[in-house]
Design brief:
CATH superfamily: MFS general substrate transporter like domains
Number of domains: 1
Distance between the termini: 40 Å
CATH architecture: Up-down Bundle
Helix content: over 70%
Number of helices: 23
Largest sheet: none
Strand content: under 5%
Length: 480
């Protein structure tokens, strides 16, 4: 019954199903980013609450000690009972002090490390499962589990303390890891090659919208509310996405009951000619794949991008905290938020324009597919190099974030270009290893602060990677 009603709605609106799948895939990326970053924007408030609860605990303990009886009891049994009571009261005193100290010094680093450790571990398995069984349920399960854990975050943190938060972030990282590889598998099945630049880059750049959204929700709209409300809003949004996604999206056009025969044939004729759409690949040509130079150029470029994105996002958060340290009105905070988030919105718009330009250059034969991807990568290289080597002023930071839009029409599309049959595995490798800077970000920040030459080395490495990438279908794509 629901399927018939949805089919009538799609027929009436004349909606193309590949656009529906891309729309929900973009929302999946947005949800993944909001779930990942929600804690970053609320961690200071969580730590302050944890410290206050530790102080309250110690205060209660001190009062309890003062209330102990001072008269010497006559019976040994009474003395033994009071000694036991005194021991029980003294133990939480130490525990509370340690808990307050843990909230102060260790939690931010451990939360970050444990999340990215879990996030990296499930990338490649998620990509392989998506290639074998379809991207729909792998992507749906990844966002659903992350959403449930996000909704449970306030209760778990308030009951279990800092270590519970650390373990929880590990679980969220494990749950969220398969999302991007699963999206890549869906895009390989649904997006024609001629539309890959626009549709795929707009989907994969959804993280820029996610950064904006979580900033506005956690940092502005809920600034005077309980920090737990941000997790409830973001978790509920992800659950609503899951319901809509499983109702209207399918792993490939052949399984969709809503797609018209004309669109199904159009997609079938225009997706990569090397894409296997009927039988899953039982094995992966790991040796050929890992000995391929363009694969390592893609991995190194992905690590550079993630490093820069994390660094820029961290600096914007610090700028936001500095602005909020002054007594400001809501309108002043709103203007500051717009100033900070505008580059991310422009970056998403840049991903659309660079995607359109990429499709045009390839369709008209002006540049080859590889040359087009290299052009987009060089655009990112020049802007990021200017930021790393010359200046870290607001204008340079904003320009670098906006220029990241070209990355999504360049490096990010390479798994789909190089191997449509193993797009999930390749995305799992590149995006998973690309998260290494997030795992060791404190160390990288210290290294860069001590040695100015690090910025020049990074710029040179980016240029080298942009020169060696390839968007041609690789030989291992046909090895099953």
């Amino acid at each position: 019954m629901l399927e018939q009603q949805l089919r009538k709605v799609f027929d009436y609106l004349q909606v193309r199903q590949r656009h529906v799948v891309c729309y929900f895939s973009m929302l999946a990326i947005i949800n993944a980013y909001t779930i990942r970053l929600c804690l970053d924007f609320t961690l200071n408030r969580i730590m302050q609450e944890g410290k206050r609860s530790g102080i309250k605990t110690k205060s209660k303990i001190s009062k309890a000690k003062l209330a102990l009886p001072t008269k010497r009891p006559r019976l040994k049994r009474q003395r033994a009972g009071q000694a036991a009571a005194g021991f029980k009261l003294a133990t939480p005193h130490i525990s509370a002090a340690n808990t307050a100290d843990l909230w102060s010094n260790q939690v931010p680093v451990l939360v970050n490390v444990f999340f990215y450790a879990g996030y990296m571990l499930t990338h490649v398995p998620g990509g392989r499962l998506s290639e074998r069984y379809g991207g729909k349920w792998i992507l749906g399960a990844a966002i659903l589990c992350s959403a449930v854990l996000t909704l449970l975050t306030p209760s778990i943190v308030r009951c279990g303390g800092p270590w519970a938060l650390i373990v929880l972030r590990l679980c969220i990282g494990l749950a969220e890891g398969p999302a991007v590889p699963a999206v890549s598998v869906l895009l390989a099945q649904w997006v024609p090659e001629q539309e890959r630049g626009l549709l795929c880059s707009s989907v994969l750049s959804g993280g820029e919208i996610g950064i904006m959204f979580v900033h506005l929700v956690s940092g502005l709209a809920l600034r005077d509310q309980d920090w737990a409300l941000a997790f409830y809003v973001i978790g509920t949004g992800a659950l609503l996405w899951f319901v809509g996604f499983v109702c209207v999206c399918y792993s490939n056009p052949a399984d969709s009951p809503f797609i018209k025969s004309e669109e199904r044939e159009y997609i079938k004729q225009r997706v990569s000619a090397t894409l296997v759409t009927e039988t899953p690949n039982d094995s992966v040509p790991w040796s050929s794949m890992l000995q391929n130079a363009p694969v390592w150029a893609m991995i190194a470029a992905s690590m550079q991008h993630d490093w820069n994105q994390l660094e820029l996002t961290h600096e914007l958060q610090e700028l936001l905290q500095q602005l909020k340290s002054v007594d400001r009105t809501l309108w002043q905070d709103l203007s500051s938020s717009i100033l900070i988030t505008a580059p991310h919105f422009c970056s998403w718009l840049a991903s659309l324009s660079s995607g359109v330009l990429s499709d045009y250059l390839i369709a008209e034969g002006i540049l080859s597919r590889t040359q087009t991807r290299q052009l987009m990568s060089w655009l990112v290289f020049f802007s990021v190099s200017m930021y790393m080597v010359y200046s870290k002023e607001y204008w340079a930071r904003s320009w670098s974030i906006m220029a990241f839009g070209a990355y999504y029409a360049g490096i990010k599309l390479l798994p789909l270009d190089m191997s449509p049959n193993y797009a999930g595995t390749l995305m799992g490798i590149s995006n998973g290893l690309g998260a290494v800077p997030g795992l060791v970000m404190p160390l990288l920040q210290q290294l860069e602060a001590q040695y100015a030459v690090v910025g020049s080395i990074r710029a040179a490495l980016w240029l080298l990677c942009a020169s060696y990438i390839s968007a041609d279908v690789q030989a291992y794509n046909q090895q099953a």
